[in-house]
Amino acid sequence: MTTCKRCILDSNTPGISIDPDTGWCQFCTGFTPPGEDERRRNADILNNFFSLPHRGGEYDVIVALSGGIDSSYALYHLKEQYYHLNILAVQFDNGFLSETALKNARMFCDLTDSTYYRLAVDQQELNNTFVRAASSRNVYSESAMHRASDICNTCIGILKQKIIELAMKTQAPAVVFAFSPGQTDAPFIVLTGSLLAWMRHLFDASLTTMGVTNRKPYLLDEGLIGDGSSQPEVVMIHPFLVWEYHKPDFKKRCRALGWIEPDLMDSNSSNCLLNTYAIKNHLEKYNIHPYASDLASLVRQGYMKREEALRILHKPLPEELIERVEKRLYDKEEW
Ligand SMILES: [Zn+2]
């Protein structure tokens, strides 16, 4: 096995090749950092968007809030910069959130004067869906498989569909996801009717392949999409592709504001107990670590030191937590 000398991707991962001359993977070889002009342009777009006066809907923006560091900081920083915003913060309670994640989310809503909304679906059905995601193969695109585990892609897929639905119902013009610059490439995605119909179709197809029969509760209400025209319905914003992304600073800042660190023993997630099991499952099925691509990208873009990323990637997964999650998913035990 050869590991890229610049990032952390290795030749054992499917789809990764290391140039024997340079020692770099294909992503490092083809990488050009965004220029100053592009950064400034994106900052202007974001600033103009959020500086607009209230547009008459119930909320100005809906923020996906997991209660982890990134989303807690994103919510705080958004309100700090644009005090006039009327924010709805949505936490998807997938049944595996840590107690601290639930507390942190509520605390940051209080701090930012945001409305808290707990999104939940039938837990037993959701557990069965997670089991189907774990036992299925190749239900998501290859790029999605490198960005997140099958379980995470399912969970995020549901959240995306439902949060967009909420935005359309409440006439909120934007939804914010605090993805890291390693998890997504586009700072803004204008969701037109036709794009929404396409996203819904793709996710529905993945759920169908998994064998999920009752898919409606996980999908955007079809009636809201309308005629599938090219009119913008909602803008999806990834602020960490515009703001500086420096997790240690976010952590310091959040802690100073009262954010509580959960004891999950998981170096990849600070909020979801299912995550470690999802990583193990993904590694076993594809030999792809779902955080490798994200971490590699953060290293490449200069947001994280290579050694730190390697340490996170190779930290042993906590077996005890994995067993507890497995019991809950398969034996339907309570915690
Ligand atoms: Zn590389």
Question: How are the SSEs ordered, and which strands pair?
Answer:
Layout: H1 26-29, H2 36-51, E1 61-64, H3 69-81, E2 87-92, H4 99-112, E3 115-119, H5 123-135, H6 142-147, H7 150-170, E4 174-176, E5 188-192, H8 193-210, H9 222-225, E6 232-237, H10 247-256, H11 274-286, H12 292-300, H13 306-314, H14 319-330
Parallel strand pairs: 1-2, 1-4, 2-3, 4-6
Antiparallel strand pairs: 5-6
Helix pairs in contact: 3-4, 3-10, 5-7, 7-8, 11-14, 12-13
The structure holds zinc ion (ZN).
Task: Give an account of the 3D structure.
This protein has 335 residues and is α/β, with parallel strands linked by helices. The protein has helices at 26-29, 36-51, 69-81, 99-112, 123-135, 142-147, 150-170, 193-210, 222-225, 247-256, 274-286, 292-300, 306-314, 319-330, and strands spanning 61-64, 87-92, 115-119, 174-176, 188-192, 232-237. The protein has a six-stranded mixed sheet, sandwiched between helices. Helix 3 (69-81) packs parallel to helix 4, helix 11 packs across helix 14 and helix 12 packs antiparallel against helix 13. The chain is globular and about 55 Å long. It starts with 25 loop residues before the first helix and ends in a 5-residue tail after the last helix. The structure holds zinc ion. Zinc ion (ZN) binds at residues 4, 6-7, 9, 24-25, 27-28, 296. Zinc ion is lined by residues 4, 6-7, 9, 24-25, 27-28, 296.
